[in-house]
Amino acid sequence: MATNSTHTFKAEITQLLDIITNSIYTNRDIFLRELVSNASDAMDKVRFLSASGTELADAEAELRIDITCDKDAHVITVADTGIGMTSEELVENIGTIAHSGSATFMAEAAKNGTKADSIIGRFGVGFYSVFMVAREVSITTRSGQPGATPVVWTSTGTGSYTIAEAEGDNPRGTTIRITLKDEATEFADPERLRSIIREHSNFVSFPIFVDGERVNTQPALWREPKFQITKEQYDDFYTFLTYDSKAPQDTLHIAVDAPVQFNALLFVPDMTSGNFFNDPEKYGLDLYVRRVLIARRHKDLIPQYLGFMRGVVDTEDLPLNISRETLQENLLIGKIRSTVTKQVLARLTKLAQDDADAYANFWRNHHKVFKLGYGDYANRDAFADLLRFNSSADADAEGLTSLADYVSRMKDGQKDIYFISGTSREAIRLNPHGEIFRRKGIEVLYLYEPIDEFILDALRQYKDHDLVAAEQADMAALDAFADAEDTAAAPEALGADDERTFEDMIATMKSILGERVEDVRISRRLKDSPACLVSPDGGMSSQMQKMLQIMSK
Ligand code: ADP
Ligand code: MG
């Protein structure tokens, strides 16, 4: 690449910069969080590469972040001894928007107009957030590749940037120099910078210095003994990890020795504020090997149905030089995953037993993802116990019933667990199949979401009880139960004249419906409704048929 070249930003970056520079912010502090996290990532890469034997320039350089500020010149610098960038990498990494934070931000910003302020703090907007405070930025960087040329990138964040060869003999790493906007000169204050770091970057695993003074203090929390850690420290770590402004709903800190050694610190986010952004496809836990970050949001560490969990796993048992590609086939990862899964399920089970309200809150937050667990056969019992449905026994549509609740309320002699699908409680009440259950006072689970029936179909049984769609219930078994006292008397038995009338009517209906039905029969299950559709014995429920039809289209 030619030295001293000028480049125009890609259209989407110009758009992002427009939003960033033209919004009014209540929380500009986070620009420092972003720069520090990039510095930390760059040093994680050094730690990772040197552990796997890659030769790097300045191999002996201490891994640290140095921040300085010049009150008079309104300048801040953020320097790291990380992996650095070549000029090609500068164009590639700083010139594109492929990385997650900014792309998500743009999508949200487009949805919400330019109210960037309300969303900017929630996920990493990345490097460009520096233009909330910067009039001009330069990046002086030298790649860790032996013999790489140091380069300088400069921009005012409007339209274009330049790249030139750096003067002097720069060591490996990156220095970001920020000339503050007039309305942001307050940031050129070491105390202000220290307090921002304590708030947002306290858990960065490399030392951070402001004007030579060490600021961040937190060790790798997950490696510390539990009894030494306060709730506040856990919450702070969670905020550091997720950028969520709300405390987590639950925290799970585990140390396991067999069959594989690992420490994990896991959180259940509390999404009730609606302030938490979660992409169901982007899940996973951060993987460390002996405190060295190997992969962020690694999917193989947790099943998707527990993908709402956030946190870190750190193991001694993997080699540091494991490549990200071979992680997937690694047996130890599979063992960590199954242990993590069991521990999380056990924790949720305990929460459900100890604090029904807290569990209900969890359920409302995360049931959509959690329900995907119906395929986890190894943990089917725990999964089934954690399920909640609305039920005819609940006072309203908000009520939550577990399968165990249902069983505890079963009638004497009742063997099966019954359910009906429908879009709402009202819709289900109008379903004629529910009538006999109401009359007999037999509880029915209400399934509002399409996935519910798949779940019950996959489970088939709970304890010794079959899970049965109301429309497929065994009528003889239901008839054996007396009508509930408060319902009106059963219809009178049919007389000979009635039989004949019905026979004529049924013959007429059969001839009208023809091939479309298998049979037309007199029903004993209905009282308030004139007719209902039933599936042949052993057939699929009508709801299931509808779903399969939709899916096969
Ligand atoms: P993200 O960190 O989510 O990838 P950023 O906008 O913060 O997005 O950074 C974009 C990219 O620029 C990074 O992925 C990295 O490749 C590069 N980068 C930024 N800062 C540094 C740095 N201090 N050292 C090395 N590379 C950096
Ligand atoms: Mg970043």
TrEMBL record:
It is found in: Cytoplasm. One of its GO terms (molecular function) is ATP hydrolysis activity. Keywords: ATP-binding, Chaperone, Cytoplasm, Nucleotide-binding, Stress response. PROSITE patterns: HSP90 (PS00298). Residues 1-324 are annotated as: A. It holds the Pfam family HATPase_c_3. GO terms for cellular component: cytoplasm. Its main location: cytoplasm. Molecular chaperone. Has ATPase activity. This is Chaperone protein HtpG. It comes from Desulfobaculum xiamenense.
